[in-house]
Amino acid sequence: MNISIITVGKLKEKYLRQGIEEYLKRLSSYAKVEIVEVADEKAPEELSDLEIKQVKQKEGERILAKISPDSHVIALAIQGKMQSSEELAETLDKLATYGKSKITFVIGGSLGLSDEVIKRSNEQLSFSKMTFPHQLMRLILVEQIYRAFRINRNEPYHK
């Protein structure tokens, strides 16, 4: 299985990079996982609704340019469906069973995802109704993908 995680912005925090690298190393025996960073759009702190839409649209264009046409896209979005770790494992297992070997997870920037990215996605996933920094979501996502593979192989992992 080939998994891409497309994310907006550079990861600056060393502790998050270290955590992500650890899970990517663990995942390497289960799947090929790559993280693709696209540039975030520089914007002032206070934005009008139109400016927010424009920022999301520009970031969305960069995201869409990185998505393979044959990839099953799962967008991380607050309005998405919440799943347990077991349900995410089941989702990944079903995708593999039905021949979907390319899966792309998308993490938007601080303003979220454009409508075009949401439309391109095959499903939307929410980790919580809470808002998390998008850099932290990378770590949470790779950990949950790792957990899903462990669950699907009936291998022990802390609960």
TrEMBL record:
It is an enzyme of class 2 (transferase). It is found in: Cytoplasm. Its main location: cytoplasm. Coiled coil: none annotated. GO terms for molecular function: rRNA (pseudouridine-N3-)-methyltransferase activity. Gene3D superfamilies: 3.40.1280.10. GO terms for cellular component: cytoplasm. It catalyses: pseudouridine(1915) in 23S rRNA + S-adenosyl-L-methionine = N(3)-methylpseudouridine(1915) in 23S rRNA + S-adenosyl-L-homocysteine + H(+). CDD domains: RlmH-like. Keywords: Cytoplasm, Methyltransferase, rRNA processing, S-adenosyl-L-methionine, Transferase. Its EC number is 2.1.1.177. Specifically methylates the pseudouridine at position 1915 (m3Psi1915) in 23S rRNA. HAMAP family: 23SrRNA_methyltr_H. Homodimer. This is Ribosomal RNA large subunit methyltransferase H. It comes from Neobacillus thermocopriae.
